[in-house]
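DM from R.C. (forwarded with permission)

"hey, sorry to bug you on a friday — could you get me a structure for this? deadline for the figure draft is monday and I only need the backbone to look sensible"
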Amino acid sequence: MEEKEIKLTTKQQKFLDGILDGLSKADAYRQAYDCSNSKTASIYANSHVIYNHPKIQAKLKQFQEETKKRHEVTADRVIEELSKLAFVDIKDFLEYRTEKTKVGEDPVDGEPIIGYETIIELKDSKTVDTAPISEIRKSRDGSFVFKTYSKENALINLGKYLGIFTEKNEMIFKEAEGPGTESLTNPKIKKAFEVLYPHIKKDKSEKDGKGA
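My reply, with the result:
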């Protein structure tokens, strides 16, 4: 049985095109609708209403399914790729050590002056998975630059994907948002840290106990 075609109005389609092009909901709304006399609050409110319209959501879901099929995106593949970034180890790509080296001679007795040099040896790119590498280059001054994608972001995304970080954790942080809550003295933020990072609180308690 064929799926029934979802028909959108011209403005709805323009809004959807904006979303698929990476625009925010508000900007996509501005692109599709006349907002010349609209207040910012109204634009944001209306953009959320349009975004959550059943036909828009159905079209978005349809697009996501087509994209998954086209690029062969599966849950296992997403987890595999996130895991590469989350558990990356720099030793997978290079070896580094410090060696003694002659940097000159003593002008008085001619004895060698010894310094220390950091030796970096890259592994052949043919033998390693380079997916986690975001940048590798030599700067103008000759220094070596090697970066991987954010390990922390990958861990967070992987945790969310696997349900390790629950909605409860996110809600705690949402409650803590707002003016004057930047300081960790805010009880809600302190509570969030205790829930998400219980080991930190435990470590601090142990240290305090030893100092007593």
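R.C.: lifesaver. Residues 166-211 form one domain.
me: no worries. Residues 54-71 form the longest helix (18 residues).
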